[in-house]
TrEMBL record:
This protein's name: Uncharacterized protein
Composition-biased stretches (Basic and acidic residues): 78-98
Organism name: Popillia japonica
Compositionally biased intervals (Basic residues): 99-110
Region listing for Disordered, in residue ranges: 78-110
Length: 110
């Protein structure tokens, strides 16, 4: 059971469906299935959030996992965008300074 873990770029849906089928085949309850599924998930943040939610069926569990994964991905995208924007502003003055130096060297060499 523990040998089946989600691979880094594997979709959450594909992983969950396979893991749940395996858990049901061996007769695990919904809570045990949820626990085993979370243990093998790649995204730690999704596991932390989903572990605290009470689920009454597998469909709710799957939908919550996919929703959390999407929200986390969107947040990470926004954070990356903000960092790139800040880095761009930091780099622009350096580039301008280099360009001025280059122009000055070109002017002096003429």
């Amino acid at each position: 059971m523990a040998s089946r873990v989600q691979q880094r770029h594997e979709s959450t849906g594909a992983y969950i469906h396979e893991k749940v089928k395996f858990c049901w085949d061996v007769g695990l309850t919904l809570e045990d299935t949820k626990e085993q599924t979370l243990i093998g998930m790649w995204n730690r943040e999704v596991c932390s959030v989903i572990a605290t939610i009470k689920h009454s069926n597998l469909d709710d569990l799957l939908h919550d996992m996919i929703k959390q994964e999407r929200l986390i991905a969107e947040r990470q995208g926004q954070i990356k965008e903000n960092i790139e924007r800040k880095d761009k502003h930091k780099l622009e003055p350096r580039q301008e300074k280099k360009e001025r130096r280059r122009r000055k060297r070109t002017w002096n060499s003429e």
